[in-house]
Every structure is written in C-alpha cells, then in structure tokens.
Structure prediction request, 477 residues.
Amino acid sequence: MDPTDAGAPLLSDPVQISGNVVPMTLTTGGKLRWPDRCLSIAKDVLGFTVEGSRIKINAVVESGPGICCPGNVGAPMRKTFTFEPLSEDSLRLWNQRLQSVIDSLGRPKKLFVLLNPYGGSRSAPKVFSDDVKPLLDDANIHYTLQETKYRLHAKEVAHSLDLVGYDGVLCVSGDGILVEVVNGLLEREDWSSAIKMPLGVIPAGTSNGMAKSLLDSVGESCTAFNATLAIIRGHKISLDVATVLQGQKKYFSVLMLAWGLIADIDIESEKYRWMGSARMDFYAIQRIFCLRKYHGCIKFVAAPGFENFGEPNELGGEIDELNSNWVMQDGYCGPTFDMKGFNRKIEGPFVSIWLHNVPWGGEDVLAAPDAKFSDGFLDLIVMKDCPKISLATLMGEMNKGGHVRSPHVLYLKVKAFALEPGPRADDPNKEGIIDVDGEVLARGKGTYKCDQKTLMTYDKLHIKVDQGLATVFSPIN
Prediction:
C-alpha cells in the first residue's frame, strides 16, 4: 500500500466528534479523513482502541495547527483523536476496517526488548519508560523486557532465545547490544533463519552510530522517540554484516573496524570516562600532538571504480591458509574467502585505518558519508601521513564528513580486507589496538590494558562482507 495514494473510499460514514456530526472516510490508500484532519495510517497512526461506543485513534503529529497543512514544521508529538460512530454496526465496521488496514502494513505485534541499564550515562531505563513504552502501548504492541546484567549477556540471550512468536528484537542501548545480538543470532544452529529476525535500535548509550545512520538517512533527528516510531511502523531494510576471521576465531561486525589513531582515541580515552562525552575530544587533542604511526600492511578487494587505489599485490602462499585451517563450527562460519582476489595493497606506516559499514560512527561523527546499508561493500578510510595542524582541522570536519575530502586521506570501497598490523614506528616494542564496533578485538604489547584478554591476537586478520545478511527496522522515507 502506498501511503501517499489517497485511494478510493474503503469506508465512509458520519461520526460524532466533540458533539458534532461530521463525515469521516477511510481510503484504500490508507488515509483517514474528516473535515479537520487527514491522517496517514502508515505514517501517523500508531494504533487505536475501542472504549464503549467510542474509538480512540493514537497518533503522532507534528506540533502545529494541522498535519496536512503545507509548511507545517514541528517536533513529533503523541495525540489522541476520539470519534463516535452513530450505530453499533458502524462501530463494528470501523473497528474491522481500521484493523485490516493496520494489519496490512506488516507491523510488529510482539517484540523482545533488551535494555542495557549500565551503558553510557545509565539513561536507558528512563529512555524506555519516558519515550519507548508510551509509544509501544499506543500501538498495542506487546513486549517482553529483559535487562542485561553483564557484558555479553545480550549475546547469550540472543543465542538461546525462542524466537517463535516475536516479530523483532529491540535494543535499548548504544551500539553494543545490537552487535551482541547479531553475534548471538549468527552463532545459533538455526542462524540462517534467526538472522532474518528484524532488529530495532533505540539510541540510549554513549555511541549511537547505527540509530543515527538510520534516522539521518531520511533526515530525522537521532532521538529515542523517532527510533521507536520507525520500529512501530514496521518498515525494514537489509543490512550488510562483515565477518572478521583470524584462524579459528570469528566475530561479526555491523559498524566499523579501526586501527591506529581512531582506535587509540576510542579505547584509550576510557581512562577519562569521568569527563563524560568530552573525553573523546580531550584525548583526541593529546593523540594529535603526540602522534603515533604504525607499521603494517593492508590488502583488499576493491569495489568497482576503486581498482586503481594502492599497489598491485603479489599473491603468495598465504592464499590457501585462511580456508584450509577452518573447522566446521556451530553457527555461521562466514562467507567463503577467495584470497586470490586480494590484488591491491597499501604499505605503512599508517596514522589510521578505518573501515565503516554505515555512515555515522556516533551521533557527531560522519565517518563514511558514502556508506550504504546493503551495498555489499565496506568504506575504507586510510591516512598514512598528515601534518599535525592539518590533522587537527581534519578531525574537526568529521562531524560533517569533510575529512574524506582531505588530500591526506584515501577514501574507497572494498569487498574484502586483510589487515597485517605492526608495531609503532617510533618504538618497535609497542604495538596497537584493533577496535571493532567499539570493543577491543585485539591489544598489542605495550598498549593500554594490554594484560586483558581479547578475542583475537594482534596479528593478521581478514574481513569480508555478506550483503544484506541482517534485517533492521528503518524509518519511512
């Protein structure tokens, strides 16, 4: 159903509103009209309830005099419209026809909600009670609420959850819970069906890159209110998933991988967590003026149109190493790697390597402005060298994506990627940090908290993309 098409009348009957009898029409195009209003069922109507002889329409409208008025601008707000059919037969028909139109939209009826009460400023419980729950209630969506108790709890829940009866999994947190859920679903025996479960993201953490990317794609602000509306409306899109492999270990990524400057800022700034969100900017200044470079090499399969980036890569005995050592495990093993395709390379030293699956790395970092949700490619941002003053300017342009236009930056798209990280150029006894989706995947020697165990070692790893493997709720354009 096209919500912009008014269509023919599906039901037209006089009703009583505020003591006045007025004509009301529900069209096949999903419009509910009466003299003062025109509501789109797909975009404006959350749900409805029948209370005695009255029907209450729970809707979201822009603050202003009328939702159909040209030029009307304002923040969305909840609003209830009440009308009373003039007979029991009319009441029954309105109930049936309204429900039929809503059901035709494929909206979720029951959600499993994962809430991280500890992330960011610990605001998720309040975000849920103030912004999410009222909208779900208005939409008559049932839900099961589960608070996470510890790191990787969401992954465990997603791995064992009986998905039958649920229409989606809702993550109320930063990006971390979403990543855990994706990994949990893909490690199930029934991963191929489990990963089709639609996932929703409510921004309530330190990093909200996925929610920002989804909402910004249609020009909406990154708020829990808008994110919840996107989930209620039920519109879905496919999302690429990248598999990171190192020997027998694998990790599924939906956001980014960083090594060098960006990873150092993201992870090492944790020592200044008491500063709140200012810690990132504060530590970025430190890292710029005490700039590190890392030896290493990257190899990649370039997307069409980017084949001339880097230098030719002479293929050696490493080609068969990745696939020959793989042992079948439960869950998804990741895509097949044809290492012969890794025909381009760039040698270090590097200031920063950054791979992105979605445009925004956070609410104020437009890391990869050309990234798409399901194009089958990762956006690669490479910085080999940059004067410190230019670097400070470049970092300041990340909020609008201007950094990728710098002459000190290479910006391209890749289908597959191999990272061979090395030591710091100024100190061979110190290595770096590999950051995936905001979590430490590997720590080299001499790094911040290098004694802590990580999933992978600071060594060669490979990444390849599965186009559109996952599904996420997305706002309507």
Summary: The chain has three domains: 9-103, 110-234, 245-465.
